[in-house]
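pipeline/complex-builder :: batch 7 item 3
reading input block
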Amino acid sequence: MRSVLEVADLQTHFFSFGGSRVVKAVDRVSFTLGEGETLGLVGESGSGKTTTCLSIVGLVPRGGRIVGGRVLFEGEDLTRKSQRELRRVRGRRIAVILQDPMASLNPLFTIFRQVAEPAFFHQQMRGRTLRARVQHLLTAVRIPSPEWRMREYPHQMSGGMRQRIVGAIALAGGPRLVIADEPTTNLDVTIQAQYLDLLKDIQRETGVALIFVTHNLGIVAKMCDRVAVMYAGKIVEQAPVRALFDAPRHPYTRALLGAVPKLGSKEPLYSIAGQPPNLARLPTGCAFHPRCPEVLPRCAAEEPGDFHSEPGRVARCWLNGQAHP
Amino acid sequence: MAKPILEVRGLTKHFPTRRGLLGRTGAWVKAVDGVDFAIHEGETLGLIGESGCGKTTTSKLILLQERPTAGTIVFEGRDIAALDGADLMAYRRAVQVVFQDPFSSLSPRMRVRDIVAEPLEIHTDLSRAAIDARVDEVLGLVGLTPDVAPLFPHEFSGGQRQRIAIARALATDTRLIVLDEPVSALDVSVRAQIMNQLEHLQRTLGVSYLFIGHDLATVAHISHRIAVMYLGRIVETASSEALCERPLHPYTQALFAAALPSHPDDRHAPTTIAGEVPSALNLPPGCRFHPRCPAVMPVCSQVEPVLQSRDGGEVACHLY
């Protein structure tokens, strides 16, 4: 499998109080993504999953900066590109789908104008070709009667339809990578299932690689080939999806899996005490050690490195034996 | 099972939509349209449905935030529409609520002590010292220490805030708590803490819950019985186990088909229903679900099915 994206040692820090306080939102994150592959980026709020995605496309908010690492996309390092160069990548070769479709769509423009934009700017399509292209895209995301719907405005659509239109915009440039940041959080369960099935169909047809940012392990089980679990800015475990669900190696992953209610089971939920740490005041050693049920004496003092137990599996935990840096 | 603590019969709420300059009443939104259910002592009833199905309106009717268009709500044997004076206060004391978002349901300008004490100050004539003692007690019940009392809500995380909201709901001698999506806004690891806490409180205090939610696995985990709502009507009620084992109504089956797997190898039937929930302003004739139903029959578009007992539960569908 050819790799589409290779993130190596990515570090994004936020600086405040004139640089006297540093928050390491993304701390040495590495992963690779092959063609047609889906990676689930899982974590709780504040774990750095969204900042990781924004760093990939060069949209880190004010106060933040990529301070180290590489983002190789189809062989080019995106961290070295200017915003001007990145603009030719975003919307064409990398597309982003955000959580709230109402905030991603402009209420003042017709659906046609918004779906046409990437093809208009990146592929210089005009006139009838452009109209046919928009119609094709809306059909691909299963908008009924697209020639009529594309003259309408976002407020005339339901939530599920709006999110499908955002999907059509993402596909407009023919991307090789789509980053979907919690795209179904605001949707009802039956609409969510329809949307996830649609994304899978599109991926089968186009071979696009997907990064799925979510806190919902059910979505990961349904959609992803591989999973990276983030905690306090770091990837604490990375594995193929079946291996992760069958034999999680990091206590945090185990806790997350145990905390989710299973349909038809009344077994008490496994709960971890405390809450995710504040990134500005991280504990020493392993960031998870104050909440870890299997904590060892060295966890508070030394930070574990990446332990590669088998190909494709990484866990940052002292329980996994000797480090192979 | 003990006798019902709350019984809802034929509960209906229609909202008018205003049209034109003079605000004449146009169509009616049938938010809740003839709902029946009962909650027993120490029981959790799960109310599940998609957005716009009327589950929040149902909770508002129980909490007396809205007056029903028709139907009755009977609490401990008395119709709450007929309550006034001290009896009404007693009802408000006995039925409390916890909302979805603990960031907007707690006043940022009040200390935790005052937030939890407020229902006691309104509903009881306890002395200040007695109120303080009670506040410490309920904070202890939800797993917080008394030294959080002088703090403000912004000093707490989402999970802790939700604990404060639960403490406030428990402060008066509460018999029933309406939990309106109480864990949807929380992180996964914190969600499990709150769910376990709620179950523990029910076991120790015998309080009843009406648990409103949209996530099947969460609702099924905490509830003894589940009522499935679609467009203002209950389409199926059953015990949590029976519902998970054998959902009867095609809409319930569709919800299960749409539920996310708990393991990559879990594969549900791929038949998810097409289309979206129609507007409550313009209900389809006959069964409300028939335009989306995979098992639709000619009778479905003409006659609206009623809830009938079946296999220990109730289902409203022409298939049975």
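note: The interface with chain B takes residues 44-45, 158, 160-161, 188-194, 197, 215-219, 221-222, 241-242, 245, 255-256, 258-266, 268-273, 275-276 of chain A (CB under 8 Å).
queue -> next item
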